[in-house]
From TrEMBL:
This is ATP synthase subunit a, chloroplastic. Signal peptide: none annotated. PROSITE patterns: ATPASE_A, RIBOSOMAL_S2_2. Keywords: ATP synthesis, CF(0), Hydrogen ion transport, Ion transport, Membrane, Ribonucleoprotein, Ribosomal protein, Transmembrane, Transmembrane helix, Transport. Pfam families: ATP-synt_A (PF00119), Ribosomal_S2 (PF00318). It is a multi-pass membrane protein. It is found in: Membrane. The chain crosses the membrane at residues 222-240, 278-298, 318-337, 374-396, 402-423.
């Protein structure tokens, strides 16, 4: 797998996404051509993280994913005519058959291409395909052997977001190859676009740590580091203000300096008359982002180890940056409506009604701009640090810590400034 690995960071291998894109494109081309020729496909993925995704993807693409007398009896109502004990036993057998063989009950011949999600988990299936001469497309993680499959796709085979995204691309290629009707293609295209927007929430930098709560996968590293950040901010606020004095001490001086900085920033963007109510909101955004951007390094590596992944900044997850951007949008609309009432909506037809679509689009692209700007900065910072540390591991880390502190402050300042500017803009008479 060496040729598929971009770098190693804190004992975790980072895959080369260029290779992923290349082999995924090859796999999609192969599947589209095969589907246009009426070939049959089998998707194999029995691991807990992937089973429901595989079943869903295979159903959409009309693929087999891994018993018919009992089903016929059930559909005809014959099971209900049997004694209760016998009927219960047959229903249990039917449930077990559906669980184990539901995906291949209509398969009457060997598949032409097999898509495998986890090479190690499905090693038996790979061996069978090799024996039977069936081409395979397989997700390969850093601990896999790409030589065992015809088209290896370097990817994280433990992350649901990664599995979902790749499966959707592969099954979309199959559907396109089967030549859906024009109307169906338009409908599927719309669904795929909506699905792509949902999949953006799975974008990650590095290896994340998850909790499985019921049927939901929770980004544990985001929650843990967010709680740490909140605890740090609350502790600093408490200890710095518990003994305020007329003549401030060093700690009080520091807090007053931060407050004055945030107050000036808010006043500059919103205006002298309206800025005071918004100082807490802008200050909270600035401080949370500033501390969050450095929180991945709060606990030294290997002092506190996680089963999978690492403690990373909450802003390392696009869901966090989107949430912060949406908070800003809510504040933006609230400020405008609170200040100007329903006349606020009149700005959308200024200076001419012809600009109505553009003005509406502008407001709804603001949260996207804020979220992707912050996440993109974190992504760039992570990649640059990973490359430099891999090249000069003993020299770079300390200077990079100071660089990271500087970039964290810049990113927090940019988002806080834009948030205040948007709020100030919404309370003006026009754009």
């Amino acid at each position: 797998m060496t040729s598929y690995i971009f770098t190693e960071r804190k004992g975790i291998h980072i895959l080369n996404l260029t290779q992923t894109a290349r082999f995924l494109s090859e796999a999609c081309d192969l599947l589209a051509n095969a589907a246009s020729g009426g070939k049959q496909f089998l998707i194999v993925g029995t691991k807990y993280q992937a089973a429901d995704l595989v079943a869903s993807a295979a159903t959409r693409a009309r693929c087999h994913y891994r018993f018919r007398d009992l089903e016929d009896k059930e559909n005809m109502g014959l099971l209900n005519q049997l004694p209760k004990k016998e009927a219960a036993n047959l229903k249990r057998q039917l449930a077990q058959l559906r669980k184990n063989l539901g995906g291949i009950k209509y398969m009457t011949s060997l598949p032409d291409i097999v898509i495998i999600i986890d090479q190690q988990k499905e090693f038996t299936a790979i061996q069978e395909c090799i024996t039977l001469g069936i081409p395979t497309i397989c997700l390969v993680d850093t601990d896999c052997n790409p030589d065992l499959t015809d088209i290896p796709i370097p990817a994280n085979d433990d992350a649901r977001a990664s599995i979902r995204w790749i499966l959707n691309k592969l099954t979309s290629a199959i559907r396109e190859g089967r030549g859906n009707t024009h109307t169906a293609q338009i409908f599927i295209g719309i669904l795929n676009d909506l699905n792509d927007l949902y999949e953006i929430s799975g974008v990650e930098v590095g290896q994340h740590f998850y909790w499985q709560i019921g049927g939901f996968q929770v980004h544990a590293q985001v929650l843990i580091t967010s709680w740490i950040v909140i605890a740090i901010l609350l502790s600093l606020a408490f200890f710095a203000t518990r003994n305020l004095q007329t003549i401030p001490t060093s700690g009080q001086n520091f807090v007053e300096y931060i407050l004055e900085f945030i107050r000036d920033l808010t006043r500059t963007q919103i205006g002298e008359e309206e800025y005071r109510p918004w100082v807490p909101f802008i200050g909270t955004m600035f401080l949370f982002i500033f501390v969050s951007n450095r929180s991945g390094a709060l606990l030294p590596w290997r002092v506190f180890e996680l089963p999978h992944g690492e403690l990373a900044a909450p802003t390392n997850d696009i869901n966090t940056t989107v949430a912060l951007a949406l908070l800003t949008s809510v504040a933006y609309f609230y400020a405008g409506l609170h200040k100007r009432g329903l006349s606020y909506f009149g700005k959308y037809i200024q200076p001419t009604p012809v600009l109505l679509p553009i003005n509406i689009l502008e407001d709804f692209t603001k949260p996207l701009s804020l979220s992707f700007r912050l996440f993109g900065n974190i992504l760039a910072d992570e990649l640059v640090v990973a490359v430099l540390i891999s090249l000069v591991p003993l020299v770079v880390p300390i200077p990079m810590m100071f660089l990271g502190l500087f970039t964290s402050a810049i990113q927090a300042l940019i988002l806080a400034t834009l948030a205040a500017a948007y709020i100030g803009e919404s309370m003006e008479g026009h754009h």
